[in-house]
Structure formats: structure tokens, C-alpha cells
Amino acid sequence: MKKNCLILNQGYTDNIGDQLICEMLTRLVEDAYNVESTNFIPFLEPVTIQEAIRKRTSKEHISIAKKIILVGKNTIRKIVTPYIYDYFRAMHRIRKEYSSKHYDLIIIGGGELLKSDHIFLPCLDAWTSFFYKQKARISLFGVSSDMTFTDYEKQKLNAVFKRFSYINVRDKSTVSVLNRDFKVQASYSPDCVFSYTSCFRDQPLKEDHVLVMVFDYWSLPSPRKWATIDEYFSYWWNIVIEACQGNTKRVRFSYTTAEDAECTQQFYQKYSQAFSGAPNLNVNYGKEQIISDIAKAKVIVTGRMHAMILAKQYNTKIVPFCFKRKIDDFVETWLDKKFDLELVTKEIHREVQNMICC
Predict the structure, then answer these.
(1) Crossing angle of helices 287-296/16-29, nearest 10°?
(2) What is the rounded distance in angstroms from the CA atom of residue 136 to the CA atom of residue 130?
(3) What is the C-alpha separation between 259 and 217, in angstroms, rounded?
(4) According to the model, what pLDDT value does residue 66 have?
(5) Which of 109, 184, 296, 333 is deepest in the core (most CB within 10 A)?
């Protein structure tokens, strides 16, 4: 009889990359386990990308009572410190949902879960503390890390890492950070989304399109390089014009997050006259249509790593928007390097088997 596995990640958010991670991790372990998955941030409700876009674009009225509750929660969070507040909030939901359930293997990952000054760390602490006491085997798989942490975060992470039976990361910088700051010897394999086309072998015909995904201005790390969104859009305009070689009729628009959808729509509207020959952004697209757009395009302009990973598999030329270390690492490792998809897929499968068998 198969054992039970629980996958914890961001696969129930509006981020298509995180959804793909959840889907591929499930496929990679489902032959050996009965697999369930749930939100890594346990008190967030699942949302589709279409729902998230509708919420962002509709001016939903917030009642006075709800505003008072939100202000109260934020005040308490500041008084007790965000880490402690988020830890106990997560633990409360975890105990409520999982106290009567049993899992043999817990997989946390992948994605950018080791982030400083972020809600991810107290959630990681809560999940591992709960299942470690239940004597479940816990693995961290396919994650990446910030380069620096506070002393308090290091103290917490040192305790968290001791609860894992297996730690795997998706880039060499994270291998170095974990070894340097935590004396953790993590294994490495490429992001599991590199195995996507090994499961879905469709290779649609290429179209002479340049696919543009404008990264959300307000999601850029501070301090922003561009003081205003107009400056930012001007920068993107130059990238797009170079990518389409001046022929804006070749341009198509897409997104992999709700934030990017909104920002890309604003970019299109700012330059609507120049893009009059190109179709507007379709905000009703789901994961399959977005992947199809990437597969059909000749060129993609994006700052989203999983859009780039899919583009590599579909032989779509990548024009990267580099704004953080994660993208710099991807460009250095993958952009202009020889790419043997079969070998990469085998490496991912080998690491999954190592995790299962450890």
C-alpha cells in the first residue's frame, strides 16, 4: 500500500510558476506516494490567476468593520513582532487542519521560500516544528535563498534546518549561502519545472511573435532603479522595440502573475497607439493558454524565471529582464549555454529519488 505525502508550496496562488512547481512535484512523486498538496502559507485561501486579476481590477468595497479588524491585526502583529505573530497564526491553522492526519513524507518547496524579512520564514518554522513532533520525514526541495539574513533569522533557520532529512536547492548560489551561514550541505538540481515538457510533449508551430510580459513595477525590490513607473515603462519600451526589431505588430502580451497582468495592461495602454496593430492583453487566460503563448512565440521578454524555464524547453529566444540575483543566476547558468533537456530531466528525477529513498 502506498504511503502518504503532503506537498507544501505556493501552488494555490495566482503565480503560474508556483502552480507549475506544485504540478511537477506531484507528478515526480505520485508513483511512490498518495499525494496531497496545500498552501505553504496556511491561512491564505486558494485563488486562481483569473480570480486574482478580477480582485485587483475591481474596486471592491471594504466595510468599516473589516478595516477596523485589519488595523487591529496589523497593530498586534507589530507589537508582538511580525515573526512571532505569523508563526502562531500559521501554527493555529496547521493544528486545526492536520492534527488528526498522518503523512510519511512532507515536501516543502520549491520556489523562493528562504526569504529574509518575509512571512515564508515563520511559516517554514511552524510547518517543520509541527510535523517534526509527529515524526514525519521532512524534505526541503528545489528552493532558493536570499544572500543575507538577520541574526534572529539565522538563529531560527539553524533550528529549522535540523528538522529536515533532505535538503535540495535549485541554484548554486543557494548551495553556497546554506554552507556559509548554516553549515548545511545541500544537494543541487535544476528547478523541477525543467521537466515540464517531458510530461507534456506537445511542440506547437512557432509564430513570428515577440511575447512581452512586463514585470510588475511595485514588486521590484527596494530601492527601485526607476524612480517612477513612467521611467520604468520607458525602459521596457526600449527593450520591446529592440526585441521586435521595430515592428510592433509582432508583439503579443501575456503574464504569469496577476500583478504582472495589471502592469502589462498599463504598459499596453500607455503605448496603445504604437501597439495598434497588436492584440490587447487577454486577462481571462489560464495556465494552459499562457504556456501555449510561450511555446508559440519566437522571442519572449520577461523577468519571470519560470516563463524563461518554459521558453528554454520550447526553444523560444529569451530577452531577460534582470532585476535580482535569482534572474542573474538563471541567465548565467542557462541563457546561452548548451541545453540537453533529457539530461536535465534525468538529474531532476535522480534527486527526487534520492529524496524519497533517504
Answers:
(1) 100
(2) 9
(3) 9
(4) 67
(5) 109
pLDDT tens-digit profile of 255-296? 999 999 999 999 999 999 998 877 778 877 889 999 999 999
**By C-alpha distance, which of 158, 161, 186 is closest to 172?**
186
Average pLDDT score over residue span 171-193: 96
Q: In angstroms, rounded to a whole number, what is the distance separating the alpha carbons of residues 323 and 329?
A: 11
3-state SS, the chain, equals CCEEEEEEECCCCCCHHHHHHHHHHHHHHCCCEEEEEEECCCCCCCCCHHHHHHHHHCCCCCCHHHHHHHHHHHHHHHHHCHHHHHHHHHHHHHHHHHCCCCCCEEEEEEEEEECCCCCHHHHHHHHHHHHHHCCCEEEEEEEEECCCCCHHHHHHHHHHHCCCCEEEECCHHHHHHHHHHHCCCCEECCCHHHHHHHHCCCCCCCCCCEEECCCCHHHCCCCCCCCCHHHHHHHHHHHHHHHCCCCHHHEEECCCCHHHHHHHHHHHHHCCCCCCCCCCCCCCCCHHHHHHHHHHCCEEEECCHHHHHHHHHCCCEEEECCCCHHHHHHHHHHHCCCCCHHHHHHHHHHHHHHHHHC
Distance CA 141, CA 147 (A): 18
pLDDT digits (tens, 9 = 90+) for 257-268: 999 999 999 999
All cell numbers assigned to 256: 504569469
Distance CA 29, CA 33 (A): 6
* More confident position, 151 or 61: 151
CA distances to 73, 169, 193, 237, 267 from 11, in Å: 26, 18, 12, 31, 27
* pLDDT given for residue 337 in this prediction: 81
Mean pLDDT within 220-240: 95
CA distance 126 to 113: 14
> What's the whole-model pTM score?
0.93
Q: Which amino acid is at 77?
A: R
